[in-house]
Write a structure and sequence with these properties.
Layout (H helix, E strand, L loop, with lengths): L13 E7 L2 E7 L2 E6 L2 E8 L3 H9 L1 E7 L5 H8 L15 E3 L5 E3 L3 E14 L3 E13 L8 H8 L13 E4 L5 E3 L19 E4 L1
Antiparallel strand pairs: 1-2, 1-5, 3-4, 4-9, 5-8, 6-7, 8-9, 10-11, 10-12
Length: about 200
């Protein structure tokens, strides 16, 4: 079985935002889609380790901002590589507005947003699946949506082509962080994007 087959699935990229008890936050997710048209419902899957997941669970509402090919890596760094538990991700950030539900949506590097209210949630172990009714939405630009493949090829900074002579490196396929060592510990967590050892590849 070749686990890399999963990479051939098509994924979009989104900033999920929510708030509870006066605290706003957001995170990058790659699993969002329409599940019914009448009534109009969407589903999202969010890692339980993300602070934004807790906010959605508490408030029952969220916004999805659809990232476009105009998104820069700084947007991913702000919403994907730091925790809302310790950082105010909206501090000094002007690329956002409040929607009718009172939550932020992202206006920089996006082509649309959807506001939704949770109807039900499903515990998936590491993630929570939220099924929600669409309450509002709008198109922000006509720039094509960014796929995960586009992020890998055109947004994520390119690492050095090869490791230093005589050194073995393991490179995170999500953010490009490199770990030096003959073996990557099985329980290693990327210090930048928090992805596990399974998302690292050996640099030949």
């Amino acid at each position: 079985m070749n686990p890399k087959t999963m990479y051939n699935l098509t994924y979009g990229l989104f900033v999920l935002t929510s708030a509870s008890e006066g605290k706003d936050s957001g995170c990058i997710i790659n699993t969002a889609g329409q599940v019914t048209s009448e009534p109009n419902r969407i589903s999202i899957a969010v890692n339980k380790a993300n602070f934004t997941q807790e906010l959605v669970q508490k408030s029952g509402i969220f916004n999805i901002s659809i990232l476009s090919e105009a998104a820069g890596f700084d947007l991913f760094r702000r919403f994907g590589f730091q925790s809302g538990r310790t950082v105010d991700k909206f501090s000094d950030f002007n690329g956002c507005r409040r929607s009718a539900n009172g939550l932020y949506y992202i206006t920089t590097g996006t082509n649309g947003y959807i506001s939704a209210a949770v109807d039900q949630s499903v515990d998936l172990g590491s993630h929570t699946l939220f099924i929600a009714s669409v309450k509002d939405m709008d198109i922000l630009s006509d720039i094509p949506s960014a796929t995960y493949a586009y992020y890998q090829s055109s947004i994520k900074p390119k690492p050095d082509a090869s490791p230093a002579s005589g050194k073995t490196l393991w490179r995170c396929k999500v953010c490009g962080y490199t770990y030096e060592g003959e073996q990557l510990p099985a329980d290693f967590i990327c210090p930048l994007c928090k992805h596990p050892a399974s998302d690292f590849e050996k640099v030949q």
